[in-house]
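hey so i finally got around to running the thing on that chain from the lab meeting. sorry it took forever, my laptop kept dying and i had to restart like 3 times. anyway pasting the input first so we r on the same page abt which one it is
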Amino acid sequence: MTDTARTRTPAWPTGISAITLFTEDLDATKQFYQEVFGLPVAFENDNSAVFEFGNTIINLLTATAAPELIAPARVAQPDVGSRLQLTLPVDDVDAMCTELTTRGVTLLNGPMDRPWGIRTASFRDPGGHIWEIAQ
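ok and heres what got predicted. didnt touch it at all, straight out
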């Protein structure tokens, strides 16, 4: 083996294949994703429901099943604040906001023009996860 082969750093992946979100109410969160995003459930069992967003899956997992996945880290309670935001690109933020409100979604903010040149709006799912739409 050459010195170059031994010291070569492996390449990082070019995409994220799965994101697991913990939720206290799997049924309500699953229904939200079906109704708001208009997506079918790709897989489900007693503790999870999976949705496909292009090449990325969103795995909704009951908070009670999460410790097994992340131990020794702890699962945070949903009311302690957000630590992430998931962003979906859309063609027209204003039109999508109108559609979201007809689907019963309450916007946290927006639509608004951001200083970095995009228009955004944000909302929260029943599990407390923040979703942003952006154009």
